[in-house]
Amino acid sequence: SDTLPDESAIHCICDLLTHIGFALERQLQGKNDLARACERLRDIKDREAPGSQRVYSKQINVLIQEMFDGRAVALRARAVLEQAAEVGVCGMLDIDGLARS
Question: Which superkingdom heads the taxonomic lineage of this protein's source (predicted)?
């Protein structure tokens, strides 16, 4: 059966992934585990109870979405930094990842 976690467990996993997700992404197994956790959180966020109501509170759904949004920003920033490192301009980047003139 598909047992749903309580909201406190979801809150904890979102906090954990926010803080250690970058470290998990550096290892193949960690990347796979992170992908599975995110897939499960996406399923939890989108889950509806009979009558088209969300199973979890709006607060939990927002928390999950904020975690996904933060990961997306971090991935874009990493891609910009890796690209900058390839062309040798790492020291010339501002906070938004844009090259200075």
Answer: Eukaryota
Query: DSSP letter at 55?
Result: S
Phi, psi of 66, rounded to the nearest 5 degrees: -65, -35
Strand pairing category for 53-54 and 48-49: antiparallel
Enter the tokens of residue 77.
């920033």
Query: Does the model's pTM come out above 0.85?
Result: no
Q: Which segments of the chain are extended strands (E)?
A: 48-49, 53-54
Report residue 4's pLDDT band, with 50, 70 and 90 as the boundaries.
Answer: confident
Q: What is the dihedral of CA 22, 25, 30, 33, to 10 degrees?
A: 90
Domain ranges of the chain: 7-73
Of residues 75, 80, 82, the one with CA closest to residue 94? 80
Long-range contacts formed by 58-63: CB under 8 A, 24+ apart = 59/7, 60/7, 60/10, 60/11, 63/10, 63/11, 63/14
